[in-house]
Write a structure and sequence with these properties.
There is one protein chain. The chain is α/β, with parallel strands linked by helices and 261 residues long. It has 2 domains: 65 residues, no CATH class; 150 residues, Trna Endonuclease, Chain: A, domain 1 (3-Layer(aba) Sandwich), CATH 3.40.1350. It has 7 helices and 9 strands; from the N terminus they run H-H-H-H-E-E-H-E-E-E-E-E-H-E-H-E. The strands form 3 sheets. Strands 3-6-7-8-9 form a 5-stranded mixed β-sheet, sandwiched between helices. Helix 1 packs across helix 2 and helix 1 crosses helix 4.
Length: 261
């Protein structure tokens, strides 16, 4: 059996720092001052209720768990400088990706123009009756999404709710790159809009803003490409739920909440 000798660190803080630098997204040379600041806070925390000997034992025996806990906190408070990417468009179109919907065979699709009696779980309903949607049925996650569909049926040339993988827009969430799936895409006479209805109290959430930035960048690159083939520009629109009403025009929503790159 192989035997590995435990490494005795000179300073208690070194147990924390050596555990953190094992993570791929932490570079000692770049983050040394911050790492030792966090390590000092951690050591002082244990010293507040443990003896010096007991503190050292905890840091030595639970180094990995302590480092993992601190790393999670660092990810939640991390930021990343914006980086420009070179985008290569390999083809001018992609096939529409189908969405798989679960629905009761005994319940036919509801008319999208009518608000259901119970709006507490909108995702359970399947809606139909569209004339401009690219799919015969759709699901909505909120009453605001249903109302936006009413507006798009009235004022767009065509629209749909994209399935996962349709646009392949990715954003950074902690150490992962996650795909963002916008709620609606609608084409008008002059512009193609990527629309995201969002609860008013979520408009400033970090997750929402990171997705917004990724989508705006995607729309900018898409617009650059479409100018080479006489296509329409793209624009991202982030709309608070309480601004969506059936008597609201699409142009008014865009003028208030559209984001130009």
């Amino acid at each position: 059996m192989a035997w590995v000798k435990e490494i005795e660190e000179t300073r208690l803080e070194d147990y924390v720092v050596s555990g953190l630098v094992d993570f791929d997204d932490i570079a000692y040379d770049t983050h040394a001052d911050m790492l030792y600041d966090l390590a000092t806070q951690t050591v002082n925390h244990f010293r507040s209720y443990l003896s010096e000997e007991a503190t050292g034992k905890v840091l030595r025996l639970h180094q990995r768990e302590i480092a993992k806990f601190i790393h999670v906190q660092m990810q939640q408070h991390s930021w990343e400088e914006k980086v420009d990417y070179e985008v290569v468009v390999s083809k001018g179109f992609t096939d529409l990706k189908q969405s798989a919907y679960a629905a009761s065979a005994e319940e036919p699709p509801l008319d999208f123009r009518q608000s259901p009696t119970d709006k507490s779980n909108m995702a359970r309903y399947l809606f139909g009756g569209f004339s401009l949607c690219l799919f015969p049925v759709q699901k909505f996650h909120s009453e605001a999404e249903r109302i936006l569909a009413v507006i798009l049926e009235r004022e767009s040339k065509k629209w749909f709710k994209p399935a996962k993988g349709q646009f392949q827009i990715f954003y950074k969430a902690g150490a992962d790159h996650t795909e963002y799936q916008p709620d609606f895409v609608a084409e008008t006479d002059n512009v193609i809009y990527m629309l995201e209805p969002k609860a008013k109290n979520q408009m400033g959430d970090v997750d929402v803003l990171v997705k917004r930035d990724a989508a705006v960048q995607w729309c900018r690159h898409a617009s650059t490409h479409t100018t080479t083939c006489n296509g329409k520009p793209w624009q991202y629109v982030l709309i608070p739920h309480d601004a969506i009403a059936e008597n609201m025009s699409l142009s008014r929503l865009v003028s208030q909440f559209g984001i130009t790159s």
